[in-house]
Amino acid sequence: MSTQLQNLNARLETESLGKIVLAFLNYLTVEAGLSDNTILGYGRDLKDFTAFCHSKDAKQPREITTAIIFDYAKSVARQNKAEASINRSVVAIKMFLRFCRMMGHIKDDLTVFLESPKLWQKLPVICSKDQVAKLMDAPDEKEPYYFRDRALLELLYATGTRASEVAGLKISDVNLKIGYVRCLGKGKKERIVPLNRSAGAAVEQYIERLRGKLAKSFSKDFLFLSRTGKALGRIEIWRLVKKYVCRAGLSRQMTAHTLRHCFATHLLSGGADLRSVQEMLGHVDIATTQIYTHVDLERLRNIHKKYHPRP
Q1: pTM, two decimal places
Q2: Which residue segment(s) compose the domain that 201 sits in?
Q3: Do residues 289 and 182 both lie within one domain?
Q4: Rounded to an integer, what distance in angstroms lies between the CA atom of residue 247 and that of residue 297?
Q5: Active-site residue 266, yes or no?
Q6: Which of 234, 260, 261, 266 is catalytic?
Q7: For 71-99, how does the pLDDT look when each residue is reduced to its tens digit (9 = 90+)?
Q8: Is 294 annotated in the active site?
Q9: How far apart are CA 194 and CA 182, in angstroms?
Q10: Number of folded domains that form the chain
Q11: Any catalytic annotation for residue 304?
């Protein structure tokens, strides 16, 4: 459990409604297998919600009314938060109230009239293959962590894994002989993703020439280590990618997650089928993967040229 999650739990334990929120978060962790980041997000949303309920003298679930829920929804909307943040907050409250009803804390379904805002579907930011190649070449061989950083960038792009998934990779999760990576995605679902030769060679070089020097007694089997021997965290991975994005002179919008978008888009543009890309990305719903078909402008132009009746 992360330090942030531990601090949040400590704050929630100080209030009666907060203790039920804690039970709900524990239920999500054990039964639904949600990641620490998702639990942390829901926990923050519900901490704000319970604080609002307390301000309205609602200190037990049975004292929460639809009027309080609607007033809270209005107050969140006035904070100029992004639609995605508001949507997550509404989902967290819905799930919490349903948990309370399931556990007998409330009798009525208070979520019937609580609707999530409709979200605009935003197209992901991607880079061209040349720009990605430029990023791969950004680490300098003279730098002490060159082999690690080059392997990190190559693996992110070669597998389309999330930064949090790469942070949790163990040496035993990478098979360099056959060429695949085993990672644990959202909901603790395991998937296998092929590893290309260039990424495999970069990872092999890092393991042979640098990882042993970084490893300490507490490093365990984690693949990517920091200078102190600790496993690289998600935030550290994001910062490293940002560092090389700036060095390569690429758009500041480019992040570690952009490499995941590039992975999917470049595969589809090369002729990969949507179902295979869905499996490699670990998407539950293929509709999530389909968004990448709208990003490849060259592919759309070819389809338009091929099928439109007018030349």
Answers
A1: 0.68
A2: 129-304
A3: yes
A4: 27
A5: no
A6: 260
A7: 888 888 788 777 777 778 888 888 898 88
A8: no
A9: 9
A10: 2
A11: no
Q: Is 54 a catalytic residue?
A: no
Structure tokens at 63: 């004292």
Q: Give me 181's structure tokens.
A: 């990576």
Give the active site residue among 98, 170, 257, 299: 257
Choose, from 148, 211, 261, 283, the residue flagged as catalytic.
283
Residue 111, in any domain of the structure: no
Q: Is residue 21 part of a domain?
A: yes
Q: Are residues 39 and 143 in the same domain?
A: no
Tell me if residue 206 is catalytic. no
Does residue 123 belong to any structural domain of this protein? no
In the chain, % of residues over pLDDT 90: 45
Out of 186, 230, 242, 299, which one is annotated catalytic? 186
Residue 143 binned pLDDT confidence (cut-offs 50, 70, 90): very high
Active site residue 19: no
Phi, psi of 184 (to 5 degrees): -105, 115
Q: Are residues 141 and 279 in the same domain?
A: yes
Count other C-beta atoms under 10 Å from residue 47's C-beta: 16
**Catalytic position from the list 148, 162, 261, 266:** 162
Amino acid at 108: D
**Complete edge-to-edge strand list for the sheet that includes strand 190-194:** 174-175, 180-184, 190-194
Say which CATH number the domain at 134 has: 1.10.443.10
Q: Using the predicted structure, report yes or no on whether residue 66 has a pLDDT greater than 70.
A: yes
Among 87, 102, 117, give the residue marking a domain's end.
Answer: 102
